Each structure stands twice: as C-alpha cells, then as structure tokens.
Amino acid sequence: MIIQRISRFLSDFDNLMPLFAAACAVIAALAIISLPFAYYDDQLYPKSIDEKSPLDPYDRGGPPFSRAEIRLQYPNNSPTAGYVTAYLTPFSWFLANTTLHTGTTIVAHPGGILDEILYNTRGLDTVVETAILFIAFAIGSYIFRKGSR
Amino acid sequence: MTTAGGTPLFLLEFGDIVISFTPYTTSLFILALVFTLLVIASRPERQLDIAFGTDAYMTKEISLSEMRFRRFMAIACGLASMGAVVTGDLFDFCLFTALVGICNVGIVAAVKSRHVQNAAYQYGLVALAATVLLFGGSAMVAATTGTLSLPILATGTLPAVPLAVKAFIVIGVMGEGMAPFYAAKAEMFRAPGAPYVIMCSLSSLLIFLRVIEVVVQL
User: Fold this and answer.
1) N or C: which terminus of chain A has fewer CB atoms within 10 Å of its end residue's CB?
2) What is the pLDDT of residues A120-130, one digit of tens each?
C-alpha cells in the first residue's frame, strides 16, 4: 500500500528535514519559472536613494527634529507619525555629521538608525538577514551533529 | 469593508497595523484565549508507563523548573496564536507565526529526554528554514502589490499576487508547525507534561485556519 509506505516514511522524524527541503525546492522552482514578477510602482512605503546623504540608504528626508512627510496606510490612526522615528540619538547624529557611513553601521539604540531601517523596509530586510544567519547556524549545527555520530 | 472572514465587528487600530475582529477571526481568537487560560489554570500531569500483563507501572518525575519553563512557553505560544489569528497585516502575521514556531520548539525542547530532543531538533530546523519562505513571501507581496494590509489586499483593486508567492507563504506556515510535517510532533506527544504539549497542535490548527483566509484574499 502506497499510503502505508508514505506514513512509514513520515513517521521517522529524521526524514522531516529532507522532505521539507524537497517541498521548498519544488516551490522555489515554481517561483523561478513564474518570474518575472511585476513590481508595483505605487508602493505604500516608497524608497528613494540619495547617495550624497550621510544617512544613505536610510535617509527619509527632512530635518530630524521636525515632522517628516511619510506615507501610511491608515494616516488617521497615526497623527504623530513622522516625528518620533525621525529622531536620531546624539551618537547617530554625530556619526551622520562626521562620516558618510551611518547607513552602513547598525547603530542599535532607540531612535537610532535601526528605526530608519525598520521604517524604510518595514523590517523586512532585517528579518530576512537574521533568518539567513539563523539558517547558517542551523546548517552548521546539523553538520556538527552529523559528524559526532 | 468585507473580507473573506466576514464584515469586521470591531477594529483595533495600532497605527498601520489594524487588528480586525471579523466573525471568523473572533471565533479563532476566543478558541486561543480559552486554551491559553486552560494552560494557565491547569495542573500538569505525570506520565505513567504501564507494563502489559503485570501490575507494574512507573511514574516519570518531572522537575518543577522544567514544568515552569514549559508553561511559560505554552502561554507565549497562546499569545502568539491569538496575535496571528486576528492581525490585519501580512508582515505582522508572519512575525506571529514565526513566534508560534519558536514557542512550539521551546515547549518540547525543554523535555530532558534524548529522543524528544532529537525530534525537537529536526522540527526546529524546519521551523528555522520556514521563516525564510514566510518573510520572503511577505516581502514579495509588498513588492508586487505595494501594501501589506490584508483588508486593502482583500478589496481586489490591487494586482493579483503571483501563485508562487502564495505558495511561499503557505509552505512557510506549514514549516512553522503543520500537517505533513507533523511526524515530529507525534514523537513529541510522547513527552511527559500533558496540558502544555496540546498547545503545539492547537496553535498549528489555528494558524492553519488563518492562513487559508489570508491566502484566499490575497
């Protein structure tokens, strides 16, 4: 019986990772076949790059202590949007004024450049970067365990 | 504003993340809430091993600290599933789903048994790998439609999300703790500590029901 064989295969949890990897590979192949995806120009969270700015690529525009013009899905829910996250801490402000590399550092203090990153990408890039790091650890631990058996 | 889950009864507005209580999401939310309260209130069981044909049986001793940690993880899992079923933002949904996956691994990885921990390790690898698909999918939704808000996506005025992207989100949620990848969980259910393990399957069920609604209206 085919169902018996499938359930016997699934009952061994060591087969789980290969199965999931195969499913991912199939879906990735499907995604590659259906390329290109059309980029929708009217983005809610637009991104513009000003290479001259010290805050590049995370410059939202506008002086940090006044209201910046940012776009929102529901503007009526956020009357104070554009004030708080446009704030740079003194250290970020110092970096931005003296170097051109604020955008290349992860200055992770409240109101710092991390907030700018999270605004501009809605957090997607940081999460994806972290996920890739986690995957690297996962592969590393898998290989380590394989070797110790 | 009618979504696949019905007309919202109540909208809770957190800036751009609008939490909508439609009849569908409300019933899922209440289910998650009730089970979280049960986990908080219930007393853990001791597992008994009975030898067939004899009167012999053994009780497994489980330390208090282990139980405390697993209860914490089960409550966190309940909160994450509550968030995942009501949220009206795709990225937020992915975050809560990833949190559900982490909590599920946490509930079982606390068990001090080699077999259970091996199963939890395999499951953790799958859950980790699934986050890439999950967040990759939501990023592609943002790129192809320009927004992440589920009520706006449900209006149908935006360009359709490609099928492969929907598949990304679905397989991402599957990896975070669901049906075909359930085999590891069957091993986990052997783990002592009854009321907490049930949170794994309940949260999987809830996010499974929710992701159907999400993908249908993309």
Assistant:
1) C
2) 555 566 666 67
**What's the confidence (pLDDT) of residue A25?**
92
Q: Which of B119, B121, B128 sits opposite A134 (nearest CB)?
A: B128
Q: What is the pLDDT of residues B118-162, one digit of tens each?
A: 878 888 888 888 888 888 888 888 888 888 888 888 887 788 888
Q: Which amino acid is at B180?
A: P
Residue type, B176: E
Which residues of B6-118 form beta strands (DSSP E)?
10-14, 17-21, 48-50, 57-59
How far is the C-alpha of B30 from the C-alpha of B46, rounded, in Å? Answer: 28
Work out the minimum CA distance from B210 to partner chain A, whole angstroms: 21
Whether the per-residue pLDDT at B30 is higher than 90: the answer is yes
User: Would the CB atoms of B18 and A37 count as touching at under 8 Å?
Assistant: no
Sequence ranges of the domains in chain B: 10-216
In this predicted complex, what is the ipTM?
0.78
Q: How far apart are CA B92 and CA A65, in angstroms?
A: 29
Q: Give the closest of A19, A72, A124 to B135, CB-based.
A: A124
User: Which distant-in-sequence residues (6+ apart) come within 8 Å of A61 by Cβ?
Assistant: A48, A50, A68, A69
Interface residues of chain A, partner chain B, Cβ below 8 Å: 10-17, 19-21, 23-24, 27, 30-31, 33-34, 37-45, 72-74, 77-78, 81, 122-124, 127-128, 131-132, 134-135, 138, 142, 145
Q: How far apart are CA B66 and CA B188, in angstroms?
A: 15
Cα angle A42, A47, A49; round to 5: 135
pLDDT exceeds 60 at position A112 = no
